[in-house]
Amino acid sequence: MKSSARVVVIGGGVVGCSVLYHLTKRGWTDVMLIERSELTSGSTWHAAGGFHTLNGDPNVAKLQQYTVELYKEIEELSGQSCGLHLTGGVMLAGTKERMDWLKMAHAKGRYLGMHTEIISAAEAKKLMPLIDESKFVGAMYDPFEGHLDPYGTTHAYAKSARLKGAEIVLRNRVIDTIQRADGTWDVVTEQGTVHAEHIVNAGGLWARECGRMVGLELPILAMEHMYLLTEDMPEVAEINASTGKEVITALDFEGEIYTRQERGGMLLGTYEKACKPWSEKETPWSFGHELLEPDLDRIAPSLEVGFEHFPAFANAGIRRIINGPFTFAPDGNPLVGPIKGLRNYWVACGVMAGFSQGGGVGLALSNWIVDGDPGFDVFGMDVARYGDWTTLGHTNAKVRENYARRFRIRFPNEELPAARPFRTTAIYDRLVEMGGVMGDSQGLEHALWFAPSKAEAKDEFSFRRSTDFDHVGAEARNVREGVGLLEISNFAKYEVTGAGAEAFLDRLLPNRLPAVGRMVLTPMLNPAGKLIGDFTVARLADDRYMIFGSGLAEAYHMRWFLAHAPANVAVRALGLGLTGIQIAGPKARDLLAKIAGRDVSAATMKFMDVAEFDVGPFPALVGRVTYTGDLGYEIWVKPEHLRGLFDLLLAAGAEFGAKPFGARALNALRLEKSFGSWSREYRPIYTPWEAGLDRFVSIQKADFVGRDALLAARDKGRERILTTFVVDALDADVIGDEPVWRDGKVVGWVTSGGYAHASNASVALGYVEAAAHDFAAPYEIEIIGERRSARALTEPLFDPKGLRMRG
């Protein structure tokens, strides 16, 4: 074993070997993988080996496509077979709702270049003769599904990496990882210490333990997962003989099972509701090539449904039952990327679908290490989507929930109940008593909409307009006609101070910084000139700034801030140390004037002004800005003052018709203004020119991160253009990722949308290919399998000149 390497990868499963191979592919050959036992010793060796390209996040789906296409490459390079069986597969729908879900998944696939097909139950029966077609209403066929040999695939990655110069050290457990003062690492192992510039935690079942070596508690948990192998089945032999092909894979959502051929029989696996975690607090280092005790009683309900839906299974003998642990993150997607505050420490774990996602994870992480950027939009699997608020117990509850729901539909208006409420503010109970239907964002409760009473505060889950529709409409209209109150404690808040604060932010952000007492809107860019954030920046003193952004991206943005901040700058995420309420609507100024400790007239407190003064008895930071696009103010107070502020605003605002509104009304209001949002319209695959944010970029500035790339992109011309559409919708509005059609071709995709109640219009925001962009052209947007006509807007539906918010 060498005493040093540029990168040390910890863990010899399929993910670790993929990362190692991709690093060598990028030209980094001084790399080493250290495995405590043998390759495939954790979850990899007992995996069912299935792969597919479908994922709820289109960006993750693209990487899954890449993974499947990669297997031929590593087979040819290594000479090691992956045991690839590209059989194709059917996803079976037993209900109308599931069929709608498949239609939406098929629509996503159109702009991803996938080749899925919606078929009838009878057509599914022809492709997969083992099913009872009477149990299903339809299906989706995907030709790029199948299965492979986990052992062969992992070794193909490993051999390919070795051929390119990588070193692999087996039977050598990592005992500790210690960072030196210069940011490099000592990887302490049973066979000695390796000095590395970078380390990658791809520890699989032991990733949590490896993380704890550096004080990191990763939100992952291992779950017991069972599948069974049948004896040879005559029905399988008949299909093989009559078609000359293997039985295709099948996924039965109602049965919560998946199947594929295994030798002369079948493999049947399940994600049962009565799921069971494994080694909840600590994974034993002594665990190796072992299996867990089978528990057929636990999966019996799923098997009963499976035997009804696949009758041949009822007569098949069971050859073997496999029960082994796999790790999951709370949302089921991988945890990939650098760790905030830890220089050159990377994770690639929680990859439960390693043979669908392992190649994409290796590609993204190797790019990230070499280039400082993954090269793709990978926020859906970025470890930074979880912040410091996660705990072992919270992870445990959410992983159980995700596992038990893996084959269930997650409706766009469905909030999941496990481990809730977890984080609350001082007005949580007030909002609930007022009929608030609560949502969970980053573990924090926030109001989605308000029902007439607490008893009626319940969503009816649907892909179509639901029980909240009229109530959200009333909230939105109240904002446009009077004044509404929205808690905004779930926004991200950062304080930037120090002698170097101005120079730091001026370099980091492409817009000009505001004067003291003023605010500006600004994107943030990576070196490639792509969007990695959008903020409101307030300047409170020469060396003190406040930054407001998306709560979803707090850890993501703090990681970036800390990685770039010099020694004379302090950046602090305030979290729930600062809470707030937004007031918005034409009577917002009247309400604030009634209780403010200073003059807030239009002449004194102009649009985008910010100041610290008392609101009633409460010391507050007040900015004249609102995401509704109306006249409004954001009022920020310490958490101990939030309850009093809320009560004061309600009481003082009674004469103006002040009422609370929720996140869904806010969405309806921002759609009327064509305001984009982080993680939907603004992501690292778009430039400010494409996203319509060019007015917030000052190219006259001599230098800022991404400037050269941005100017090159401007000169090259936009590849796509963010566009607002009014859609001729029926009883369903877009939710995101629907294809945009023009002249019979898919020319773009929807990023977000919904119903803009105050304008009585169904609205969609989305990107259209520049060559196909024409405001006068007729478009169509596909909603639940039906193409609806759509009209591109040249200006926002509400107050296009911005007179209300500026007046």
From TrEMBL:
Gene3D superfamilies according to UniProt: Aminomethyltransferase beta-barrel domains (2.40.30.110), D-Amino Acid Oxidase, subunit A, domain 2 (3.30.9.10), FAD/NAD(P)-binding domain (3.50.50.60), Probable tRNA modification gtpase trme, domain 1 (3.30.1360.120)
Record-annotated Aminomethyltransferase C-terminal domain positions: 722-799
Domain FAD dependent oxidoreductase: 6-367
PROSITE patterns: PROKAR_LIPOPROTEIN (PS51257)
Keyword Oxidoreductase: yes
Pfam families reported for this sequence: DAO, FAO_M, GCV_T, GCV_T_C
Signal peptide: none
Keyword annotations of the record: Oxidoreductase
Family the UniProt entry places it in: Belongs to the GcvT family.
Name this protein carries in UniProt: FAD-dependent oxidoreductase
